[in-house]
């Protein structure tokens, strides 16, 4: 059975000792690991959290985004240099936490658009920055799992085909890809085709319902998703990413205007759902 994780963004984007009780309860449910958002500036908080999670026998993955002043696809040499520095900073914080996987759409600035489709040059620019960042990540034992987002959050990579193209442009063994069922539900015509496309570089999976609520209670084609993951022999994390309005600043930043499901309902029901689907499809 693949390892099952839970992203604590359902409660908070902050790196804080206040998350300790949440970590304990996730452990009691049966989770193998937790995923944290890398954004808070307090370096010591990451180190404390990394030790706390390690002491409880859990593993860690991390997720990260960049803004317009640190975008790898910017025409500005200065901005691209800032992008590289920011990604290196995220690698350092992931190392502090003990994370071996840093996922997210940090190939380009989140929710920043150019009012046109992506250009070949932008894939090349992102590839250069990510290759250099991947070399740095390799020294820390961190693998990048870049993410394709839906058209309302990103224009560089909306599909697995575009994401595979970007990973090949980066051309580094530590620069790989992830698959998110929420975004795929919007952008892909077939989970099976998308996963076949990304399989050679797939390093992480987010289990996320179409409404960002409890997995299994929405419209995602879960049987196709799990069967496809089993067919390509995916052996990485199955990490639930769900959102709420518990952290208003974060919720406002990503357009979460209502509660989808209570976080603990998502955590408890979602864990059982993944176990059941994994057993059903031999994953």
UniProtKB/TrEMBL annotation:
Pfam families recorded: AP_endonuc_2
First-level EC class: isomerase
EC annotation from Swiss-Prot or TrEMBL: 5.1.3.30, 5.1.3.31
GO molecular function: isomerase activity
UniProt keyword annotations, A-Z: Isomerase
Positions of the Xylose isomerase-like TIM barrel domain: 23-255
InterPro entries found in the cross-reference section: IolE/XylAMocC-like (IPR050312), Xyl_isomerase-like_sf (IPR036237), Xyl_isomerase-like_TIM-brl (IPR013022)
Protein name: D-psicose/D-tagatose/L-ribulose 3-epimerase
């Amino acid at each position: 059975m693949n390892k099952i994780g839970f992203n604590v963004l359902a409660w908070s984007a902050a790196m804080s000792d206040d998350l300790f009780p949440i970590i304990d309860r996730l452990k009691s449910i049966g989770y193998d690991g937790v995923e944290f958002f890398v954004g808070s500036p307090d370096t010591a908080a990451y180190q404390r959290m990394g030790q706390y999670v390690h002491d409880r026998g859990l593993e860690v993955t991390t997720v990260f985004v960049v803004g317009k002043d640190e975008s790898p696809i910017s025409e500005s040499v200065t901005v691209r240099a800032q992008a590289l520095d920011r990604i290196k900073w995220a690698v350092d914080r992931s190392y502090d936490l003990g994370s071996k996987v840093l996922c997210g759409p940090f190939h380009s600035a989140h929710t920043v658009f150019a009012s046109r489709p992506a250009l070949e040059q932008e894939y090349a620019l992102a590839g250069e920055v990510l290759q250099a960042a991947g070399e740095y990540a390799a020294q820390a034992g961190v693998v990048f799992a870049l993410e394709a987002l839906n058209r309302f959050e990103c224009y560089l990579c909306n599909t697995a085909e575009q994401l595979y193209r970007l990973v090949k442009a980066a051309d580094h063994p530590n620069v790989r890809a992830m698959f998110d069922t929420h975004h795929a539900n919007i952008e892909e015509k077939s989970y099976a085709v998308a996963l076949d496309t990304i399989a050679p570089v797939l390093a992480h999976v987010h289990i996320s319902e179409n409404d960002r609520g409890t997995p299994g209670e929405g419209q995602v084609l879960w049987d196709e998703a799990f069967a496809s993951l089993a067919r390509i022999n995916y052996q990485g994390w199955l990490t639930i990413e769900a959102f709420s309005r518990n952290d208003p600043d974060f919720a406002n930043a990503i357009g979460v205007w209502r509660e989808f499901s209570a976080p603990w309902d998502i955590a408890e029901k979602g864990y059982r759902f993944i176990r059941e689907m994994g057993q059903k499809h031999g994953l």
